[in-house]
Amino acid sequence: MLTRRFFLRGAAAVGCSAAAAPLVTPVTLLAAPWEQRLVVIILRGAMDGIDALRPLGDPAYAGLRPTLAAEAATGLDNFWALHPALDPILPLWQAGELAFAPAVSTPYRDKRSHFDGQALLEAGTGTDLAPGQARDGWLNRMLGAIPGTTAETAYAIGQDGLLVLAGQAGVLRWSPEARLTLSPQSRLLIEHMYHDDVLFRDAGGQAMTIADAVAGEDDMAGAGAGPAVPLAAFAAERLKEETRIAAFSIAGWDTHRDQARVLPRALTQLARAIVTLRDGLGPVWERTAVLAMTEFGRTARENGTGGTDHGTGGTLFAAGGAIRGGRVIGRWPGLAEADLYAGRDVMPTADVRAVAGWAMRGLFGLDRGLIEATVFPGLDLGSDPGLVA
């Protein structure tokens, strides 16, 4: 039956589809029956974890990176230092709302394909499933296993969907194809037409909100903010309402050459996205965890063009008022020749899925067996790192 509510969903999807075409990365949001919020940011392109979070106290670091290690960094303690592009989130570290998990990875090894690595990261499976066969993501499987979740406020803004939230659980997706350009007169007409109809009025308002974010994207990018900021701002607005889970991606992490010039732009995007979430969420930030993860890390050695190549062990960022921060969790393997994976990469000492799994258990009280059997099939969570306060 064609109901008014069904038609609203279609109208909202069309309006927002027209609104957000230029966004390169999607944002997906989903309502759930908790007060806690979870934001997952996929860093596409393999972030260099030991440039973002530098193990300056490791005696081998400077020798492996004679150029990159010589750059200025912001000390966190007597071992770790933060890339200066991440200084905007330094207050979160000082407030105990920012933590890092270095030397983490999925089970993916050696082939170092972005496509395969990202598919396995978002599918949350082991290497027993070919990346091309992945049909659902770990966030979607979690939602499908918990009663009471809804898709009332689920959004996807951008050209592509996110595998991490793909699957049988209901998630509305808005796949934009063109800009929504409205004159002031057209906006007034829409507002008058739907003033007394709450459902249509709100749908139209959401479409225009996204359109405004897209229209301001170029200006923000010119100021160094970039497309991640309007995505994070829109996510924060929805997370203050019914939405409990949000996911979006940030690209630009593939730094084969000239890393000292390329990486700061991507790190600035990430830092500003996190700050935007904090500022936009207000008091809700205290119940929020933000996890930023990448498909794999980069080589321990810098190459001859001032960059780094595809590696293995990477670094996960965790931010939010729900995070027990101000610390680096997990075991650091070291960078001596004998400690490297395949003689070239940071050796993984933890599964990035386990870090995410413990975060979900801490936030939502999920059963350990559910996480290991359904959310991340076959995963052994290991011991609790105490990431969530």
End-to-end Cα distance: 46 Å
Residues in β-strands, percent: 5-15%
Rounded radius of gyration (Å): 21 Å
**H/E series:** HEEHEHEEHEHHHHHHEHEEEEHH
| Number of distinct beta strands | 11
Oligomer: single chain
* Helix content, binned percent: 25-40%
Write down the overall mean pLDDT: 83
Query: Low-confidence stretches at least 5 residues in length (pLDDT < 50)?
Result: 1-24, 152-159, 174-178, 216-224
State the domain count. Answer: 1
CATH topology label: Alkaline Phosphatase, subunit A
CATH architecture annotation: 3-Layer(aba) Sandwich
For the largest beta-sheet, the strand count, sense and barrel status come to: 8 strands, mixed
Shape: globular
- Which structural class should the secondary elements be placed in? alpha/beta
Tally of individual helices? 13
CATH class: Alpha Beta
Short summary of the structure?
By secondary structure, the chain is α/β, with parallel strands linked by helices. The protein has helices at about 5-20, 50, 60-65, 90-95, 115-125, 140-145, 185-195, 200-215, 215-220, 230-240, 260-280, 350-365, 370-375; strands at about 25-30, 35-45, 55, 75, 80, 100-105, 245-250, 290-295, 315-320, 325-330, 350. Helices cover about 35% and strands about 15% of the residues.
Describe the structure.
- By secondary structure, the protein is α/β, with parallel strands linked by helices.
- It has a single domain, classed as Alkaline Phosphatase, subunit A.
- 35% of the residues lie in helices and 14% in strands.
- The chain has 13 helices and eleven strands.
- The chain has helices at 4-19, 49-52, 61-64, 90-94, 114-123, 138-144, 184-193, 198-215, 217-222, 228-239, 259-281, 352-364, 368-375; strands at residues 27-31, 37-44, 53-54, 74-75, 81-82, 98-105, 243-251, 288-294, 314-319, 327-328, 350-351.
- The strands form two sheets. Strands 1, 2, 6, 7, 8, 9, 10 and 11 form an eight-stranded mixed beta sheet that branches.
- β4 and β5 (81-82) form a beta hairpin.
- α6 (138-144) crosses α13.
- The longest helix is centred in the last third of the chain and has 23 residues, at 259-281.
- The protein is globular and about 70 Å long.
- It starts with a helix and ends in a 14-residue tail after the last helix.
- The model is unreliable at 1-24, 152-159, 174-178 and 216-224 (pLDDT under 50).
